[in-house]
TrEMBL record:
It is a single-pass type I membrane protein. This is Discoidin, CUB and LCCL domain containing 1. SMART domains: CUB, FA58C, LCCL. GO terms for cellular component: plasma membrane. Residues 141-237 form the LCCL domain. The gene is DCBLD1. Coiled coil: none annotated. The chain crosses the membrane at residues 446-466.
Length: 525
């Protein structure tokens, strides 16, 4: 009797599946989803609000091969008690976990024997329920936490945890700032993003130090997260870091370029020079001479740090003057070193131009961090959108480049290879690879003889072919082949063009072009 009832229920589920999928296609019940190489965050739609009726969310998540997958459920609130129409289910090639719903016991963490799992959330008719919040990571991060953990959940004065990618936009308040610390009621991972310890699209390891609380916590907008002012608490917490976050704007060799002035209604001349663009100055900020929107890509504020430095963050304000309600709402960063071209800072996950969130008023400062850091001498803040007129005060944070912290920057060139200045300045905005070259092998010693041997063999082959073709009366192949650039170089290997100069341009920006003299054929003789 019982078996017959179960069979009937299974038959009804199969028959009604197409109808349920018509009402809710796969994916329309999914909410916030952020995934990276080895961690991520996923929620039901509208979380932490009530999830919608008759929806399906199905997504396969994975970590690198050879790793095991860790799942942590931060929250599960599904109204159904039978899991017939509302449930959360995890499926691998060999196992099934769930379905979970209602008040049934649910494991907070699942360690799977595979690197891949399919998450399926389905809803029928219901009145209430938040749905679910799930975080995941590879087995490299057994100390994974969810986006909902708060500092007061932990008693130890010092501890380290792994935050998954995607916690920035999950509901949860923080109070405080990087300098004074955060109230212990703040959610940890969002506070770490706010402090610039980790990037939201990457996640990462955090090290926390708990201290005695203070009477008041001052909020600030930083890295897209708004912290609130907070009141007295027994405890607060700080993040430990590499210490590369001191002000670079106060150093004596720092220079800021570009100026204009206007006459106020009172007849007073107001100077908006770049020299006033440092955040510590109490006078007028730097402001653009043109408020029209067609100047968007032509106005920037450039800082010369005097030498190549590691830049980890920037703080900006608007005009700071109540009678001049000017501020920049979004901007991009460009950077370069001596004798190299301007490059645009890009996001890690998508490798696209990263647009930073700027100010929302003329007064309050906003901080943004660069993960990975910028390594450059020259930096430009290029406004993208603004209120009324471009106006900026800036403060850059970072440190001198030393042998210790220079290893944190991943370059395309090998650290053992001497290259040109342009290649040396080429920085990749991506995470640092974990693989290292074995120290017992001298790669240069092995590779160079192989390359020389290959070149010798190739040269002998080319020489033999050359003699063979010469005997036939056509030393350079067919007439069509002679028209190609490759054959031109072989025919006239030492020919020089008579032009005495060439021009280096910088991405069509307002940069004075450099003209360099070349040796002409006459001079060479």
């Amino acid at each position: 009797m019982v078996a017959g009832a179960r069979g009937l229920l299974a038959l009804l589920l199969v028959v009604s599946a197409p109808l349920r999928l018509q009402a809710g296609e796969q994916g329309d019940g999914c909410g916030h989803i952020v995934t990276y190489q080895d961690s991520g965050t996923m929620t039901s739609k509208n979380y932490p609000g009530t999830y919608p009726n008759h929806t399906v969310c199905e997504k396969t998540i994975r970590v690198p091969k050879g790793k095991r997958l860790i799942l942590r459920l931060g929250d599960l609130d599904i109204e159904s008690q039978t899991c017939a129409s509302d449930y959360l289910l995890f499926t691998t090639n060999s196992d099934q976990y769930g379905p979970y719903c209602g008040s049934m016991p649910v494991p907070k963490e699942l360690l799977l024997n595979t690197n891949e799992v399919t998450v399926r959330f389905e809803s029928g008719s219901h009145v209430s329920g938040r749905g679910f919040l799930l975080t995941y990571a590879s087995s490299d991060h057994p100390d994974l936490i969810t986006c909902l953990e708060r500092a007061n959940h932990y008693l130890k004065p010092e501890y380290s945890k792994f935050c998954p990618a995607g916690c920035r936009d999950i509901a949860g308040d923080i109070s405080g700032n990087l300098v004074d610390g955060y109230r212990d009621t703040s959610v940890l991972c969002k506070a770490a993003i706010h402090a610039g310890i980790i990037a939201d699209e990457l996640g990462g390891q955090i090290s926390v130090l708990q201290l005695k609380g203070i009477s008041r916590y001052e909020g600030i907008l930083a890295n897209g997260v708004l912290s609130k002012d907070g009141s007295l608490s027994d405890k607060r917490f700080l993040f430990t870091s590499d210490g590369c976050s001191r002000s670079l704007s106060l150093e004596p060799d720092t220079q800021i370029r570009t100026t204009w002035q206007w006459v106020s209604e009172m007849g007073e001349q107001l100077h908006w020079s770049p020299g006033q663009a440092q955040l510590q100055d109490q006078d007028l900020s730097w402001a653009s001479g043109d408020s029209s929107k067609n100047r968007k890509q032509r106005e920037w504020l450039e800082t010369d740090l005097g030498e190549k430095k590691k830049i980890t963050g920037i703080m900006t304000t608007g005009s700071t003057q109540s009678n001049f309600n000017f501020y920049v709402k979004s901007f991009v960063m460009k950077f370069k070193n001596s004798n190299s071209k301007w490059r645009t800072y890009k996001g890690i996950a998508n490798n696209k131009e990263k647009v930073f969130q700027g100010n929302s008023n003329f007064r309050d400062p906003v901080r943004n961090n660069f993960i990975p850091p910028i390594v450059a001498r020259y930096v430009r803040v290029v406004p993208q959108t603004w209120h009324q007129r471009i106006a900026l005060n800036v403060e850059l944070f970072g440190c001198q480049i030393t042998q210790d912290n220079d290893s944190l920057v991943w370059r395309k060139t090998s650290p053992n290879t001497v290259s040109s200045t342009e290649r040396e300045d080429e920085i990749i905005t991506s995470s640092i690879p974990s693989e290292e070259i074995p120290t017992g092998i001298n790669v240069t010693t092995v590779v160079i003889p192989l390359v020389l041997l290959a070149l010798l063999v190739a040269g002998m082959g080319i020489f033999a072919a050359f003699r063979k073709r010469k005997k036939k009366g056509n030393p350079y192949g067919s007439a069509q082949a002679q028209k190609t650039d490759c054959w031109k170089q072989i025919k006239y290997p030492f020919a020089r063009h008579q032009s005495a100069e060439f021009t280096i341009s910088y991405d069509n920006e307002k940069e004075v072009t450099q003209k360099l003299d070349l040796i002409t054929s006459d001079m060479a003789g």
